[in-house]
């Protein structure tokens, strides 16, 4: 009946890797935000797994905090994308290379 | 089917849907796959003994946050030209070599993890952690974290309002054209 905890952490690693690949491979900022959502979800699953392993509710508390961070991040990120679309009429991340150090 | 099989099925659905998210050309299709991935993860949470987190995942994540995404995509007005350019950027030939090599590494890591002794020696059942335990802990020792989270949400609200409201002056790029 019980789920082996190692398999759960393998799932966490795979999901996080998929999110990272998406973040690196895509040039559309909207898809990059979605990849970050996948990575945040993988981290949340890791906390739920740890809470289930030690049979404590702390994992779910951290999960709720992660959801809070994700909500704030998505709100601000999408507002920035709307502003970006208004400025350069594009979502291409390569259009943002004007800042030369 | 026992809960172990259910966990594997939902985990595979989550992996497949996440892979489809990062390979889709159309943003709306990718969002649909992302919602499927979040729902599959919610089922995983439930099977791991966290029904409160599963409910939150569906209500807050797959509900509220994804609706925000869909509204934003609607405002971006993505046309056929954008989709064709996405498929131009996503040529699978350039990713074939690295992904083959990294798949070999992944198989190796999975093999090593499989040969390790199990972390939990006792074959314990999944213990249910209900909303009451989470709530009493959340408003007990973690009260300060809740307050800080509310500050964070307030900052997100103010920042989102400030960034997304209409510009008082014209955008920078258009001022260049006008003498």
UniProtKB/TrEMBL annotation, chain A:
<keyword id="KW-0830">Ubiquinone</keyword>
<dbReference type="InterPro" id="IPR001133">
    <property type="entry name" value="NADH_UbQ_OxRdtase_chain4L/K"/>
</dbReference>
<dbReference type="GO" id="GO:0048038">
    <property type="term" value="F:quinone binding"/>
</dbReference>
<keyword id="KW-0472">Membrane</keyword>
<dbReference type="GO" id="GO:0005886">
    <property type="term" value="C:plasma membrane"/>
</dbReference>
<feature type="transmembrane region" description="Helical">
    <location>
        <begin position="61"/>
        <end position="82"/>
    </location>
</feature>
<keyword id="KW-0560">Oxidoreductase</keyword>
<keyword id="KW-0520">NAD</keyword>
<dbReference type="GO" id="GO:0050136">
    <property type="term" value="F:NADH dehydrogenase (quinone) (non-electrogenic) activity"/>
</dbReference>
<dbReference type="GO" id="GO:0042773">
    <property type="term" value="P:ATP synthesis coupled electron transport"/>
</dbReference>
<keyword id="KW-1003">Cell membrane</keyword>
<keyword id="KW-0874">Quinone</keyword>
<comment type="similarity">
    <text>Belongs to the complex I subunit 4L family.</text>
</comment>
<keyword id="KW-0813">Transport</keyword>
<comment type="function">
    <text>NDH-1 shuttles electrons from NADH, via FMN and iron-sulfur (Fe-S) centers, to quinones in the respiratory chain. The immediate electron acceptor for the enzyme in this species is believed to be ubiquinone. Couples the redox reaction to proton translocation (for every two electrons transferred, four hydrogen ions are translocated across the cytoplasmic membrane), and thus conserves the redox energy in a proton gradient.</text>
</comment>
<comment type="subunit">
    <text>NDH-1 is composed of 14 different subunits. Subunits NuoA, H, J, K, L, M, N constitute the membrane sector of the complex.</text>
</comment>
<feature type="transmembrane region" description="Helical">
    <location>
        <begin position="6"/>
        <end position="26"/>
    </location>
</feature>
<feature type="transmembrane region" description="Helical">
    <location>
        <begin position="38"/>
        <end position="55"/>
    </location>
</feature>
<dbReference type="Pfam" id="PF00420">
    <property type="entry name" value="Oxidored_q2"/>
</dbReference>
<protein>
    <recommendedName>
        <fullName>NADH-quinone oxidoreductase subunit K</fullName>
        <ecNumber>7.1.1.-</ecNumber>
    </recommendedName>
</protein>
<dbReference type="InterPro" id="IPR039428">
    <property type="entry name" value="NUOK/Mnh_C1-like"/>
</dbReference>
<dbReference type="GO" id="GO:0030964">
    <property type="term" value="C:NADH dehydrogenase complex"/>
</dbReference>
Automatic annotation (TrEMBL), chain B:
<dbReference type="InterPro" id="IPR001457">
    <property type="entry name" value="NADH_UbQ/plastoQ_OxRdtase_su6"/>
</dbReference>
<dbReference type="GO" id="GO:0048038">
    <property type="term" value="F:quinone binding"/>
</dbReference>
<dbReference type="InterPro" id="IPR042106">
    <property type="entry name" value="Nuo/plastoQ_OxRdtase_6_NuoJ"/>
</dbReference>
<keyword id="KW-1133">Transmembrane helix</keyword>
<dbReference type="GO" id="GO:0016491">
    <property type="term" value="F:oxidoreductase activity"/>
</dbReference>
<feature type="transmembrane region" description="Helical">
    <location>
        <begin position="30"/>
        <end position="48"/>
    </location>
</feature>
<protein>
    <recommendedName>
        <fullName>NADH-quinone oxidoreductase subunit J</fullName>
        <ecNumber>7.1.1.-</ecNumber>
    </recommendedName>
</protein>
<feature type="transmembrane region" description="Helical">
    <location>
        <begin position="54"/>
        <end position="74"/>
    </location>
</feature>
<feature type="transmembrane region" description="Helical">
    <location>
        <begin position="6"/>
        <end position="23"/>
    </location>
</feature>
<comment type="subunit">
    <text>Composed of 13 different subunits. Subunits NuoA, H, J, K, L, M, N constitute the membrane sector of the complex.</text>
</comment>
<dbReference type="GO" id="GO:0005886">
    <property type="term" value="C:plasma membrane"/>
</dbReference>
<keyword id="KW-0472">Membrane</keyword>
<keyword id="KW-0874">Quinone</keyword>
<keyword id="KW-1278">Translocase</keyword>
<comment type="function">
    <text>NDH-1 shuttles electrons from NADH, via FMN and iron-sulfur (Fe-S) centers, to quinones in the respiratory chain. Couples the redox reaction to proton translocation (for every two electrons transferred, four hydrogen ions are translocated across the cytoplasmic membrane), and thus conserves the redox energy in a proton gradient.</text>
</comment>
<keyword id="KW-1003">Cell membrane</keyword>
<keyword id="KW-0520">NAD</keyword>
<feature type="transmembrane region" description="Helical">
    <location>
        <begin position="142"/>
        <end position="164"/>
    </location>
</feature>
<dbReference type="Pfam" id="PF00499">
    <property type="entry name" value="Oxidored_q3"/>
</dbReference>
<feature type="transmembrane region" description="Helical">
    <location>
        <begin position="95"/>
        <end position="113"/>
    </location>
</feature>
<keyword id="KW-0560">Oxidoreductase</keyword>
<keyword id="KW-0812">Transmembrane</keyword>
